[in-house]
């Protein structure tokens, strides 16, 4: 009888240990599944953001190439930005690539940014150098001297 009680007690202890182990590992499994889902959602978000970045960067740069010459580009961009009367000089730069030096006079900060932004819209135009000089007659305005080249 004592042997049966001992065996019965041993079986109950084994069942309790098995049940406790099972509950511990099933809870851990549930936690790991939740963490996996969270990481998977983060990867999906990263992937969608990468795809959006690729789409936006292809629209911004490389989608447009300048077909006309740089002299006509400077003239048409001046007309587009209503700055044609403030273009003081346009000089071709001698060299193996097509290049021009342009001097804009009396521009405010917004207009300077617009000129640089317009030049940056084309994949085959590069601003080689530029300088901004504050005007002494009116401190709210500046002169922009820039060298642009067309890459083949």
Detailed description of the structure:
The structure is a single chain. By secondary structure, the chain is an alpha+beta fold. It has two domains: 1-60; 70-150, Ribosomal protein S6/Translation elongation factor EF1B (Alpha-Beta Plaits), CATH 3.30.70. Helix content is 54%, strand content 24%. The chain contains three helices and four strands; from the N terminus they run ααββαββ. The protein has helices at 2-60, 70-80, 109-120; strands spanning 87-93, 98-107, 125-134, 142-150. A four-stranded antiparallel sheet has the order 1-2-4-3, with helices on one face. The radius of gyration is 35 Å and the shape is rod-shaped. The model has no long low-confidence stretch (mean pLDDT 85).
* Strand element count: 4
Radius of gyration: 35 Å
Return the CATH architecture of the largest domain. 2-Layer Sandwich
- The gross shape turns out to be rod-shaped
**What is the overall number of helices?**
3
Return the structural class.
Answer: alpha+beta
Remind me, CATH topology of the largest domain?
Alpha-Beta Plaits
**Widest β-sheet, arrangement of strands:** 1-2-4-3
* Overall pLDDT confidence: 85
Low-confidence stretches: none
CATH homologous superfamily caption of the largest domain:
Ribosomal protein S6/Translation elongation factor EF1B
Major β-sheet profile = 4 strands, antiparallel
Could you give the order of the helices and strands?
A: HHEEHEE
Helix content: 40-55%
Structural domains: how many: 2
């Amino acid at each position: 009888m004592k042997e049966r009680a001992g065996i019965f007690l041993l079986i109950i202890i084994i069942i309790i240990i098995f049940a406790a182990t099972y509950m511990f590992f099933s809870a851990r499994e549930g936690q790991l599944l939740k963490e996996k889902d969270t990481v998977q959602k983060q990867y999906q978000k990263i992937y969608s953001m990468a795809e959006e970045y690729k789409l936006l960067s292809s629209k911004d740069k490389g989608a447009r190439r300048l077909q006309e010459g740089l002299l006509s580009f400077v003239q048409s961009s001046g007309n587009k930005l209503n700055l044609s009367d403030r273009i003081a000089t346009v000089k071709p730069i001698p060299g193996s690539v097509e290049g021009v030096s342009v001097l804009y006079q009396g521009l405010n900060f917004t207009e300077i940014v617009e000129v640089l932004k317009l030049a940056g819209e084309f994949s085959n135009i590069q601003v080689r150098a530029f300088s901004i000089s504050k005007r002494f007659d009116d401190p709210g305005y500046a002169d922009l001297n820039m060298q642009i080249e067309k890459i083949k």
